[in-house]
Amino acid sequence: GTSASPCLVLGDGRLPPSAEAMGSYAFHVVSVVKGSSDGMALGVTTRKPSEVPETAQTADQVSPAWLLGFDGAVWDGAVKEWGVSQWNAASLKEGDHVQLIVTAKSEMQVLVNSQRVAAHSMKIPPASRLYALLDLTGATSGIMLEDGSAQHHSPEPPPTLHGSTLAAPAGRAHGGAKRSSAAPSAPSFCRSCMGRAVRLS
User: Are 139 and 36 in contact (CB under 8 A)?
Assistant: First the structure.
């Protein structure tokens, strides 16, 4: 429901780079909350989950972090500045396919159903080791990682995040992860069944 707490999601494997991109990952929206003007945030960090302090409760509290989403916002953790995005993540609907790409030129792009909805230049150091970072909050209450073997329709198709299991860092999360019967190899999770933070492995 609307009272569900935000869930900080951390990827513990480096996003595989390519010639065109420093990293990319994709997911499907599996559940939403109606009536919220705020949405989830998706982005990246150079921090491994073991390096993220216990006090971090939202993605912008991870340093450094680069984020897009919420109610139409951009966070550049290199300069610690908020900006405005033309894309409001509250517009995501159940079944939407979402992909985040960080290009080799440090531009962060979001594609929804293969359509680019946001592109922002970030001060991400070139050739950074990037890890997935998401804030499951606002209108988006559940997502499912895309299987790494799935096809992508992107203007710059880099590799995607491969999710095989879902584990909670000690002391930071509790509860089990929901799994889709249609894609049992792809982990999914929901705010209602997870703790404050989860780690993808």
Answer: yes
Strands 115-121 and 140-145: unpaired
Question: Which is nearest to 116 in space by CA: 87, 91, 88?
Answer: 87
* Interval 81-97: pLDDT, tens: 999 999 999 999 999 99
- C-beta neighbour count of 127 within 10 angstroms: 9
If one counts every other C-beta atom within 10 angstroms of the C-beta of residue 74, the result is 23
pLDDT band at 57 (very low <50, low <70, confident <90, very high): confident
Over residues 122-132, mean pLDDT: 94
Taking CA atoms, 152 is separated from 25, 92, 100, 172, in Å, by 10, 19, 11, 33
Separation of alpha carbons 67 and 76, rounded Å: 7
Strands ordered across the beta sheet of 131-136: 81-84, 73-76, 65-69, 41-45, 131-136, 7-11, 197-200, 166-167
Query: Beta strands 73-76 and 197-200: pairing type?
Result: unpaired
Distance from chain centroid for Cα 110: 10
For residues 19-28, give the mean pLDDT: 94
Beta strands in 78-161 (DSSP E): 81-84, 97-103, 107-112, 115-121, 131-136, 140-145
Mean pLDDT of 156-167: 33
Cα(199)–Cα(66) distance, rounded to whole angstroms? 18
Q: Considering only CA atoms, which of 24, 33, 45, 44 is closest in space to residue 139?
A: 33
In terms of Cα–Cα distance, which of 40, 73, 78 is closest to 58? 40
